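Protocol step 4 of 6.
Sequence for Protein neprosin-like (Nicotiana tabacum) entered exactly as in the expression construct, tag removed. Do not edit the line below.
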Amino acid sequence: MVTYELPVNTIFGISWQINVDGQLRVSIDQISNWDTVGISRRHLVTRHQIIIFAVMAKLSVNVQAMVMNQKVKRRTLLVLYFLLLSYNGVQGETKRYSKLEDLELEKQLKLLNKPAVKTIKTTYGDLYFCVNFYKQPAFDHPLMQNHNFHHEMKPTLHKLKQNSGTSTTSGLSTIWLNGEGCPIGTVPIKRIGKEDLIRQRHIPPPEDITFGVQLAVVAIARTQNDPNNKFGGATMAASLWNPHVEGQQHSACRLKIQKGSDIVQVGWRVDPTLYGDTKTRLFIHFQAGNIHCFNILCPGFVLVNTKIPIDMVYDTISQIGEASWEDTMSIDRDLVNGNWWLLLEEDYKQIGFWPQRIFTDLKSFATNVEWGGVVYSPTGVPGPPMDSGLLPIGNTGHEAYCRRITVLNNKGETIDEDKTTAYADNPNLYKVVDIPHWQAAKRQHFVLYGGPGENRQV
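Step 5 output, structure tokens:
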């Protein structure tokens, strides 16, 4: 862990210090006593903006206590500016890392960046390693030491169509500069840099792991809460958007399958903290007990597809008033061995799977499924727009949606799930409209969702 223990700093008569207890102490012109603001070390590492807010709050109290003239006002603004520079994002943190911490980062990089059989680039500039199937990070999991998995694995699923590998329904053939992807027997894994690791330490916990504080906000449709449910998977066709987010915010759409403390998810998200950009990207997430992570940032998910990266960019997205662009996403339980497979597009391209053996509750069937949107913003920062940024009223040409909502029963058969419940954490900012039978069509269950967030309340 990085130690942010600084000496007393003074700029234009305003002094501050962070002591060993993780407390921010502020004094102005030595007129006022040192005021202390308690900030947990976790927040010092992951919530730099809070420091600035704390300084502003404390200075405002000091200012009211001593008739603040224009000179002090100017000094206050200047010190806040310099403080912001001092804690401006994670880019500058690498300079404060000790040799031991730097070695730890290098160790993590070696675990994540496996030796490459080949290096390839995407059309949007990302560098990927083509890693031998058996060398991928999934097999570093302690429960995966003795496995019989191989790169030609195929799931046993009721609805599976043979993957032709030639479909271009969402422009997958244009992902790679070489037009091919990785060679057979390897899988594409994005190269991780030191700056990525540092930035990703700021990833907030998923909405189910918020330590008693509501940080993420959802607008979803979900199955009825019944512990006797036995779901073997679920599907959605989700419209693709690129909502505006900044800093540590994110905005996403996801399909979520859960039993107890075990969760698997797939969807798209705009997340600068996770990805280092504001592109709309595919994501997966799993939680097995107390272990959870995105994509393949920790061992768990086994890649099998040579052409589709797990964090690919959707380069064609929906625009308000135009035809929507979408991708079909499914998570299905293997009928033979219980592995949870990720499938994309209408022809069910097999991307990979979460092995049954890494779970406790999801060793069997799921009991809960959710479809819809989720947004996150740090404490004190207005919430971002959710997906299209519009509150839903029933216009699929303008609003974000998940359609063709289905679940699988315990026999792997696809069934329409029309007993869902709409739920929104903050309906003033984000809403959801659940329509089980859109225009009375079979398997046309629509979930419309979205909202402008706090920047543009409607």
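Step 6, annotate. Helices lie at 41-46, 48-65, 70-86, 99-112, 194-200, 272-275.
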